[in-house]
Specification:
The protein is mainly α and about 450 residues long. It has a domain of about 110 residues. Helix content is about 80%, strand content about 0%. The protein contains 18 helices and no strands. Helix 11 packs antiparallel against helix 12 and helix 15 packs antiparallel against helix 16. The longest helix has about 40 residues.
Length: about 450
């Protein structure tokens, strides 16, 4: 048994020796292939992949991967790959990239080379590589961002930022020596992370900008968006309020504030903010439509509380704003549908009052019931033209079809009500309605 274990141990030693030898051999192969590729990147393009494959072996092999030399070579190779690609792309925009993240890989290799450097010339070479590749990282990130590959863009932009700290420590100015340029790069990295849905990566970058007093409202919009993904609505609002106080004229922050209060149902606080938004964008039909929705909700709230005067005031305000939206944008579906819904909800409230009298068979009760029924039909008739128009604008809108089905049922027009019931079922079954029932 001892003899067998000794033999196994000997085999392991031999395997280790072969691995180290293979690493040295691979490093020589990579060096030679890199030299040929760098001499003529177009003619010797195949040497690029040969060098990459050999470096994969070298950087994973025994003693070799602990040397600054192998990592320096890897950095030089990928840096050259990106540089050659950028040069050729200027001559031919259709040039394809040989390695998707060449600059990012070059940066990681130079960073490792610097970490392992033991001699001055090794440190100098690694720093020189980092100086060059920092600009490549910015270029690689910008190209990825434009292609909406936000994860790759973030990786490249973040490396460019991190390279700045390393270069500064080594006495180099780097690309972002001034605070404005550095903060701008942090901002781009944050945007890339945010668009990549990597909120954990985006948050510290935008907080860094916030603490630095970076003068962009988008910083607060981003931090608000990140905070809104959690359960603390008040914390999100506090960030938004800070941004609104600092940038009171920024429309984007104002709209975020409006949407926040809409989600929280704080309708009474919304009217002033929407009117402020309208003052900034008086020709925006969506703002009038949204303000109409707020007044519509306030109307229903007061109607339920039986505050008739106040409910009528809010009804009139909703109607006015919906019509203003239509004046600015004729055929605006949201406004057309909302006016129909405004009348429909009033008719529904009348229906509720009417149903409360259903069991009252007294002469006075029956009279009141008939009066309410006539009122209900009149109110549904007021809603009907708007729902008809909404149906012509969007035949597949579920809420419009429901309203039309109910209105025609209330008017005892069962064939038409059944038609909209059938159309609703088509939607429920996953289909779409191509042609409108009503014609313009």
């Amino acid at each position: 048994m001892k003899k067998f274990l000794f033999g196994l141990f000997s085999l392991l030693l031999v395997a280790g020796t072969i691995s180290a030898q293979d690493g040295k051999k691979a490093l020589k192969t990579a060096t030679k292939a890199y030299g040929a590729y760098n001499l003529d990147p177009i003619k010797n393009l195949d040497k690029m992949q040969e060098a990459i494959d050999a470096l994969d072996i070298a950087t994973a092999a025994g003693d070799v991967n602990g040397s600054s030399k192998v990592w320096q070579l890897k950095g030089d190779l990928f840096s050259s790959v990106y540089r050659n690609y950028a040069t050729l792309k200027q001559l031919n925009p259709d040039t394809k990239k040989g390695v998707a993240d060449a600059a990012v890989q070059a940066y990681a290799a130079y960073q490792k080379a610097l970490e392992l450097s033991q001699k001055k010339y090794e440190t100098k070479d690694a720093v020189k590589g980092l100086v060059e590749v920092q600009s490549y990282l910015v270029g690689e990130g910008a190209e990825a961002y434009e292609a909406q590959d936000y994860a790759t863009a973030y990786a490249a932009f973040k490396d460019a930022i991190d390279a700045q700290a390393i270069l500064k420590d080594k006495g180099e100015s780097g690309m972002f020596a001034d605070a404005e340029g550095y903060n701008q790069q942090v901002y781009y990295a944050g945007l890339a992370a945010l668009n990549a849905q990597d909120l954990e990566a985006a948050k510290p970058l935008f907080n860094q900008l916030r603490e630095a007093g970076y003068d962009k409202p988008a910083v607060y919009e981003a931090l608000y968006k990140i905070a809104s993904t959690g359960d603390d609505s008040d914390a999100a609002l506090a960030i938004l309020n800070e941004g609104r106080e600092k940038f009171p004229d920024d429309t984007s922050l104002l709209f975020n504030e409006i949407n926040h209060y809409l989600r929280d149902g704080k309708l009474d606080e919304l009217t002033g903010r929407l009117e402020a938004a309208i003052a900034k964008e008086p020709d925006n039909p969506s703002l009038y439509s949204t303000l109409g929705n707020v007044y519509d909700n306030l109307y229903q709230k007061e109607l339920e509380a039986k505050n008739e005067a106040k409910s009528q005031e809010h009804f009139d305000a909703a109607f006015k704003n919906y019509n203003k939206a239509l004046e600015l944008k004729p055929g605006f579906f949201d406004a057309v549908y909302s006016i129909g819904a405004l009348y429909y909800n009033r008719a529904a409230a009348t229906t509720t009052a009417m149903n409360a009298l259903a069991d009252d068979y007294s002469k006075a009760g029956l009279k009141k019931y008939d009066e309410l029924r006539k009122k209900m039909i009149t109110q549904f008739d007021e809603a009907l033209p708007f729902f008809k128009q909404a149906e012509t604008l969007n035949p597949s809108d579920r809420n419009t079809l429901i309203a039309l089905k109910e209105i025609f049922a209330r008017k005892d027009d069962l064939p038409t009500s059944t038609e909209f019931k059938t159309r609703l079922q088509t939607l429920e079954d996953g289909g779409t309605i191509e042609n409108a029932f009503f014609k313009e």
